[in-house]
Each structure stands twice: as structure tokens, then as C-alpha cells.
Fold this sequence. Notes:
It is a single chain. This protein has helices at residues 16-25, 46-49, 69-80, 99-106, 109-114, 126-131, 139-146, 161-172, 230-240, 298-308; strands at residues 5-9, 32-37, 56-59, 88-92, 117-125, 150-154, 180-182, 217-224, 246-251, 261-266, 269-274, 285-292. It is of the alpha/beta class. It folds into two domains: 5-193, Rossmann fold (3-Layer(aba) Sandwich); 213-308, Hypothetical Protein Yjia, Chain: A,domain 2 (2-Layer Sandwich), CATH 3.30.1220.10. The relative contact order is 0.13.
Amino acid sequence: MTVPVVLVAGFLGAGKTTLVNALLRDPGGRRIAALVNDFGAIDVDAALLGLSADGVVSLRNGCICCSLQGDLMRTLSGLLRRRPAPDAIVIETSGAADPAEIVRSLLDPVVYAATPLDTVVTVVDARHLADRPDLFDDALWRSQLAAADFCLVAKSDLVDGAERARVRAGLARQKPPRLTFEAVRGALPSPALLFSGAGHAPAAPRGLRPSAAAERFESMSWTASRPVSLARFQSAIARLAPDLLRAKGFVTFEREPDRPMLFQLVGTRATIVPTGVPAQAGVSARLVLIAEAGRLERRAAAALLDGAAGP
């Protein structure tokens, strides 16, 4: 079984720890292990986490994008040896970290096989950006934003309407607005944007509830009974991607009908990798598509995907 990794990046003071604390306070039934670089242990009651007190690991004395990469990999290996093993790992980077280097390490085939990188979320501070518009030209800040699958705008309540508009306009020049979200009590509006459920069957089609904030999202599922054409599948996903926030599931392709693959689309990043999850009898593909409410044309999406599985 694989354990997905969520990487949380952003400048010092942007609100990364607030996001991680929100995930740990409300883990959605998951056992979440958190690695925190350049910070002390997160002050969260272990009883709320459903984890032992050492579920939060601090990596100190450096930045995991450079000198601590070896420590990071050893710590990930140690977490995988725990019993019970975590269902997900959240890594909070230092504000001085360039996540591009960490992403490259996590995408190493050996590392990815055990701890696949699921989502990169970068937290930005609306108040800081309003006070320091020069940050939009800062190389490290831009790299942190560029690495993100999703951008979380924190502290929006500390800016007025005009400042908020300028911040959003500046972000829109570097990140598609559909991938940028306002903080909801310090967290993304739905955990479905962070956790793909890698290694598990996709959830049944449903609205992302009961959270009121989650009413802004909708999902649908699609299945196929015969292997899928890789070329037609890629073409279908390319046409659907501009309206999707996530897509995830298991697909068997015509070239290798006995080798199920895990497909994930998060933000603008798509991956297709082998999976140990066996195919279900009579089912060659099963996907879940997630979009903002009103953006998902279900019949058109189903028709495109059906075409990928057609003769």
C-alpha cells in the first residue's frame, strides 16, 4: 500500500502551520503524520488527531530543499514502518524552501512508489502581498507559487476590497484563478482537493458534503468495461482538464490489459503510474472527476471518456 504525500509551501508567516493544524484537527478519519521543517512540533492535542504524540515530526537545523533531503527520506521510511502506518503524510516546508527541489526528490521513482506526491499547496498571505507588492517579482516567492497545484490565499479578512482585488489580479497573472482559493478557517474548502485516495478505490459519486463550503464542488464517476486507448484517453483528459480541479482513479490500457494504472490529475499536473490495486472483475476503468459546481458537463464528459474506451 502506498502513502500519499501532501506538500505545504509558502513564505514564513503565510499561514502554513494554520493549514496543517486544520488538517490534523479534522483528518477525515485518516491517520495523518506531519513533518514540519524549521518549526517546532505543532501544538495540537494528540487526542484530537487520533494519533500518538509523535505523529508530528520536526526536521530542524536546515531546509529540506537542500541539506536535509537525506533526513527527509529517512524520516519518510521510518513513518512507513510504523504500525499502524499513516494513511497520509503532510510535509510543511520552511518559508525559505524552494518546493521545486523537494518535488523533484519526491518524484524519484523509488520514492514515488512508496510515498507518491499527491498535492502541492502553496499558502500566500493576502495582507503581506498588499503591503509588499514587490513580492510578486521575488524569485523564491514565484517559485513557491509555480510549484503549487493549488494556491491558498490566507488572511483575506485583513485586506479591504481594493487590496483584495489587487492581490487576486497579481496572483491571476501567475496562476489560473480556478486553482486559487480563499482560506476557509485557515484551510482549503474541501479535503478532496488535497487527498486523492491513492491506493484506494475512488469514492462513489456524490456531492462533496456535508461541509457548507464544499457545496461549491461537484463530482461524477465514470467506469468502462473494456481497456482504454491511451491516446484517446489523453485527448479526452486534455479537453476536460480546463474545467477540472481533480481527477483520480484506475485505468487499464489496451497496450497492457493486465496492468492496472493509477491516474491522477491535480491542478495542471497529471500522472499515470502502475498500481498494486487489482482491477475489479469486468471493470477496466473507474474514475472520479471533481470540479467547481456548474463547470462539469456530465454528459459531455462521459461521452469523451466513453470514446476513449470505444472500439
